[in-house]
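=== Discrete structure encoding ===
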Amino acid sequence: MGGGYSIEPQTAWNRSVQSKIEIWTIDGPALAAVHFFNGVGDGQNLFPFYGKSTRKAKLPKFNKNMTASEVQEFIVDSMMAPYRKTLVGPNMIGTGVQTSHLRPFKFGSHPGFRFELSFLSEEGLEYEGFVVGVIKDDKLFLICYSGTREYYYPKYKETAEQIIASILMP
């Protein structure tokens, strides 16, 4: 994935790539998807397609010295950025983002972090998800799974868990 690590997909997924974000889905990204953020660099924002905005300077930026809790805040702030309407596709954009259970997590053989999240789409649809990540070689690598709370999140959660259990990062 982006030259940083490998995973075992477990099942057939539809795949799209937007800049350094790879999105895997079965039923459509607005219903459930796995997002792979492959190497967010120091000073970059999480969603690079915001870059066309003249207000880009106000968007949250990753810092290679962030702690896990600061990365968690960076992700939440990025998801709720006021310029999100320029984005088409991923379901990782929303309002009312809530996080919980930040804890250590082995990203391959590297010490990383994991947390759960919930949020609302702009239309009010409820989502659940989880995020695992690591900062390696001054870059942020994330795998985020999210889906609609009522049906799709539980439908593919175990498959997404198997994906993250398969991470190999040299």
Observations:
- The chain has a mean pLDDT of 85.
- The radius of gyration is 15 Å.
- The longest strand covers residues 95-107.
- The domain at 14-165 is CATH 3.40.1000.10 (Protein Transport Mog1p; Chain A).
